[in-house]
Amino acid sequence: MQRWIDTHCHLDEFVAHGGAAWADAERQRAAQAGVGHCVLPAVELANCAAVRAMALRHGDSYALGIHPLYTPRAGADDLRQLADLLERYQHEPQLVAVGEIGLDFFVPGLDAAHQQGIYRAQLQLARRFELPVILHVRRSADQLLKALRELPVRGGIAHAFNGSLQQAQAFIDLGFKLGFGGAVTYERALQLRRLAVELPLDALVLETDAPDIPPHWLYVTAAARAAGQPAARNSPAELPRIAAVVAGLRGISMAELARATQANACAALPRLAGLLHEI
After folding, report:
1. Where are the beta strands (DSSP E) in 139-251?
2. Taking residues 171-180, what's their average pLDDT?
3. Rounded distance, CA 37 to CA 231, Å?
4. Main-chain phi, psi angles of 154, to 5 degrees
5. Per-residue pLDDT at 232
6. Total number of domains constituting the chain
7. Residue 69, domain CATH
8. Domain coverage including residue 241
9. Among 37, 106, 116, 137, which residue has the fewest nearby CB atoms (within 10 Å)?
């Protein structure tokens, strides 16, 4: 069985939906499916402790940061607290990045200037603590890249990437890997599927974003949701099936994809290498 790395999984959200036992069960189910490691990014100060504790409990790794969707309630004090946490845990091997940070120009009502300020401040923290970053990229690739050129960091991962080939190459040139997950499993995602094929293999990492971005086999239509069926929740256990889609698109074996994406994840998040001796 191939061993996989889920480079982006919000396992702590399962606790909110069904309790700690459900989160633990999902992580165990993922392990049985071949997912040897998960990277758990925080999204705000309020969940940093829970994310860290869950990562340590399961032998996984974590990132600390403020997600752009949470910037409306984040300010200077949050950034100071984040800096304190990064300083406190800077030598803990399981802390692999600053994240999830970035910009979101898709969701209405977010203050673009405030987002930019929080994002740039977190790039400064990544520079200070010599950590890579995990980026939220939604209709914001060019603005993210502009800040990265002005405040270069130690690379990282552009999570759920869905930009152009030119933008992808710009991230790669800055030392980033590109995250592919459930969205690539939809036949209508033509641009994303082209990227999954045309990008060099050493640019790709795999992720689920669980419990979000379900693959097509879990998707619940709007009509079904209106009829009372609950929306699907993704799981890190789905990663091998997502990998099978990517391998099929590229015409390579699952073993080759597993080897490449593990190496790519370690290149993007160098502290991972020391945590993966059992994979």
Report:
1. 156-159, 176-180, 204-206
2. 98
3. 26
4. -85, 50
5. 85
6. 1
7. 3.20.20.140
8. 4-271
9. 106
